[in-house]
Design goal:
heterodimer; A: 1077 residues; alpha/beta; seven-stranded antiparallel β-sheet; globular; B: 375 residues; 10 helices
Amino acid sequence: MPKRTDIKKIMLIGSGPIVIGQACEFDYSGTQAIKALREEGYEVVLINSNPATIMTDPELADKTYIEPITPEAVIKILEKERPDALLPTLGGQTGLNTALAVAESGALERLGVELIGASQEAIRKAESREEFRQAMEHIGLKVPRSGIARNMDDVRRLSKEIDFPIIVRPAYTLGGTGGGVAYNQEDLEEIAQRGLDASMKTEVMLEQSVLGWKEFELEVMRDRLGNCVIICSIENVDAMGVHTGDSVTVAPAQTLTDVEYQKMRDAAIAIMNEIGVDTGGSNVQFAVNPADGDMVIIEMNPRVSRSSALASKATGFPIAKIAAKLAVGYTLDEIPNDITRETMASFEPTIDYCVVKIPRFTFEKFPGSVDYLTTAMKSVGETMAIGRTFKEALQKGLRGLEIGMPGLGKDFDEPEGDREAILNSLRKPNSRRLFAVRAAMRAGFSDDEIHAASFIDPWFLRQMREIVQFEDRLKAFGLSESISPDNPALAPMLREAKALGFSDRQLATLWKWSMHDLRRLRKGLGVEPTYYLVDTCAAEFEAYTPYYYSTYEPGRETAPDEGRKVVILGGGPNRIGQGIEFDYCCCHSSFALREMGIRSIMVNSNPETVSTDYDTSDRLYFEPLTFEDVLNIIEFEQPEGVIVQFGGQTPLNLAVPLMRAGVPILGTSPDAIDRAEDRERFKALLNKLDLRQPENGTAKSFEEALVIARAIGYPVVVRPSYVLGGRAMEIVYDDAALENYFKVAVVASPDHPILLDKFLENAIEVDVDALSDGEQTYVAGIMEHIEEAGIHSGDSACVIPPHTISPELQAEIERQTVALAAELGVVGLMNIQFAIKDGMVFILEVNPRASRTAPFVSKATGVPLAKLATCVMMGRKLKDLDPWSMRKTGHVSVKESVFPFNRFPGVDILLGPEMRSTGEVMGIDRGFGLAFMKAQYAAGQKLPTEGAVFVSVNDRDKEAVVRTVQLFVEMGFKITATSGTAAFLRGKGIESEVVFKVYENRPNICDEIKNRRIDLVINTASGKRTISDSKELRQTTLLYGIPYTTTISGAWAMAQAIKALRDSGLAVQSVQEYYKG
Amino acid sequence: MEAILALEDGTVFKGASFTGDGETGGEVIFNTGMTGYQEILTDPSYVGQMVCMTYPHIGNYGVNLDDVESSRIRVEAFIVKECCKTPSNWRSVKTLPDYLREYGVMGIEGIDTRALTRHLRLHGAMRGLISTREPDPAKLVARCRELPAMEGLNLADTVTPQKPYIWTEKGPRDVELQDGAYAWPGPGPRLVVFDFGIKWNILRLLTEQGFDLLMVPSSFTAEQVGRLAPDAVFFSPGPGDPATLQGPIAQIAKMTDSYPLAGICLGHQLLGTALGGSTFKLKFGHHGVNHPVKDLLTGRIEISSQNHGFCVDISKLSDVEMTHVNLNDQTLEGFRHTKKPIITIQYHPEAGPGPHDAQFFFTRFRSMVREATGK
């Protein structure tokens, strides 16, 4: 049956900012869905607060609302746009929860909007633990023994019925926030309380632990006639107990017989029908007892998910696109399979390779957090690798993770540490567990022993052991045989090693060769990868979609692309500091190339992204972004050039080695990049242009650092050279802190010097993005930070256009930007960080590449920067492209950052020079106050319009906070303050209620917050002592979801925002309307 | 141990035997199922064929006592990318190499199975020879060309039982007929099943429908069936070219007015031919568990288990209509007679391996028998 003609206009809800558990996979699904719906002639209205998404590009949807994803905003848009239908299943948990809230408010009924994809009832059935359990029992499926608790009394009662260990799962949260495993009553009290707080409905489920059981997942699609297909099965290497998002997972399932697999398949389909998922994709998670095959259902999500994005990339089947078409009435047999063209979407993909997904963690960013994996997700990104065998895919995946590991083994030294320590590292799942498995094998543990400690299935252990055993063969070969082209045993040995996924770097280490010589030798012997297709059908049908992976098989089925072609290097797995923003730029670069008639070839290893959609580029190579893997592709394809400036630090790090290997790098030269990154050369550059930077120096030891710090005067910013995202960056205020930094944070050496900069206190920080063709420079955006200098630019809120910087200073900033671009010979994008202090402009940093803010500036100004940058890299000129004429004005855009602190209990939320945000949102309105308010809402901070404001600031900030407090008083807020602040305010004629600090007495400020007597917290702290004193306050604030700010300028912005909201209220407007002016 | 796979068109693949020394030949086909190798190995329809699995890791879950479709391994040889020698599954009792060796069936690994599959897709299923003994590929290719071609090959007669048997919880058990008659145990409708190489799961599912079953050899005549006084007759799957089974086809033609009839796979092909249709060979056949089939009577799509190299042409028949169509290549997947109680299906509703979507076929057959006979 064809598509529905009774609906014309459909609204989609995006997933908002990137947070742990909800990342760019929803941009991937949403973008696919919007394209699919428009292709069918529907008018599409979108809400998403995340500017770094492809889906919010103004040309994608008909109406794009960059507004906070709240039920209120959605209802306002519904009232304004009057769509016929709302599609809630493509925006992750945020989309689903918001849609459910809107539906429950009665707004859909009132406005005559139909929920398509999943009904209100289906969403509720799948999401409510209790209803879900009843539904499963109704169709004869088992769920772990469990009970629902709505308060701590329930928890205690249930703990008598369910044996420990007990898993705590809060209802309606992302990625299991607030969940955990309790081994005893004490654990339970703590975890359950946290879970109740985290749950939107104050509801947690306590559940029989199936720790150590095997975990599987099926991706199911259903059309409205009830036809179901399974897109992919996934088996977790990590057993139950580790969140799926944190688990190493493999597609397809490896250790199930057909009987067991079909039992799961039947169950998945029965669940779709019972829950009542009308159309679309869902995933179902299973746990299987390895001893007897007993199977229980863990959960199902009636929407596309992280797993469905993975399944799409793993099989080539575009789940979100098909889900969108099913939602408008098509059936599976009516939708063609893009890849084979001749077959329809109603088939089950079968694959002839193995896919391994490995999560990426950033515990190092969160001092105080424990590297311990549980049922609450903590990873910030993931990489996927494809190989003909698990072994090949695993080693590719490990090097694609970009954590400095060239595969399973690195140094190949025998492991140190006693046996008990090794076993312990296996017993407590952590981010290094696969390497611990290798260490255990090297230390002589059997697979049985490792399985008993880690619960990792013996099949996976056996595969890893084959890799580890092959290390010995390689070592022995290196000792007994000559590594030379004349040795006939060498080529077979290399082939075997390559088939097991060993990288050149590993082989070079094992044989004590240089990687480059080894590469030359290998190529000389003709040991080169072949590129096989991801075709959904295991070669049964001819495939047309150019989606490839490398493997070392003798077959040859792929020829290099023809015509003009350019390779774009992506950013690899998401991490803090390098995420969706860079992928956004890579996609735009690809779009621009295609528009210019140049074939675009994408290389990336991140399954969550739009760049790894086979539709985005002319060719997609799903490969690790290492020198070896990238150069293999370049040598195979022979492109006219490679674009490295969009994917963040990952491709940038490859620029110089690739250039040395003779690869043409397009755009700004690697030398210019080096001039900006190398401190001495950068200093010379600034001197030449007569530009100012904060006093600074480079130290190769603590002693040197001390001399420098004293010379330029505290406070100083210290950091290692060549880092992204402010790794190990700190502001130190005295000698002792500096010494501590060297002791704890870094190891300085001549190769890894430490940089010291004078810290400009209370300066205004400014980010500038600019575009240059080598002759002319377009200053794309001057972003004024809300927070003062010292907060990492990636963590700051900022505003376009600047709202407090004088036109003269803006002109000066523009002048300096143009001068720097010209001197560096920038061809493409560049980003400069300035600080303004006492009317003087300082340059903090210059990055001649795409920045994290490029998508935000593009959205705020309507000028597609990455596209234009690609054009100039291909030789076009700015005077012809004329970005100046494209610029949209008449509105204010605010970017705000979003933090994962709720995932890392115990970690201080105070902002600093080390970047910790995972994502960003944008607020847009006609004035600053409302734009800032929207950004706060979008970031999850629901600013109050009345109530009590708690103020506790350090002495340095007391004077500055007065005008903010005054504004709150004028608006009728009650002020609560700690004794010092209260005394100071009294001196300024402001009365406040005094509360105890945490360590003073009870009831203290934390008690007040817990009693819900505080609506907003303004708390600044600096210096080790005050910071640790006020940490508990900030923890409590976070736990109870009270809006807070830790900066004075942030507080002032909040006050203005609240005033604007009280004065005029929130209205919604689409980007297209803003662009019209 | 090094092994060579030589194809009749001169293509050669190099790998290693994981079952020891040997040499064997047959038609090389590929199967795209990612699970179910034990069922595939024991499916009699694979007699004479060397099966290449497209999924690279095979043998992961070992071999268990239950998931068998007949009494022994049937494939001529097994071709994989990588065979797992240390399986992991709670039901596993032995490894895949041990299992194959037990039945003297060759298994080779290290083959670029994707390249082989592409080759078969482009050039069609073809004869092949595997050897660890003959190092000269040219000689193997030459010898390969001497193997009989699948077209024109009667293989059903090599796997059909010697005498009638019944199905019990413990498996098949031979029965003696008294003057050609059988003492049906009752109370279910009596079903005579022609076993051309049946899969046990069909017997399990027919039993589940309440039929009393009696399996008979392919050589049984219409008259012999008559003496058994069945309520219905069923024709099973099996290996080889259906066109070679002229004997059974003639007998089936005599039965079309006498009983409700049903057939699966080879049984479907024989019924189609007996009703006046013809069969032709598909380029590389359908072997897998992911093909969509549309049931034209209900409009439902079934993801099906497929294993056939031949297809029936019913276009010239007047009283026969298509009931199931393959959505990948639009080939016939099932038909029914518009005037007589006859239904067939080309693929494998019994699964084993594969999805259970099509098991409704057995219910439909049961209803048809009830309607036609009142039993």
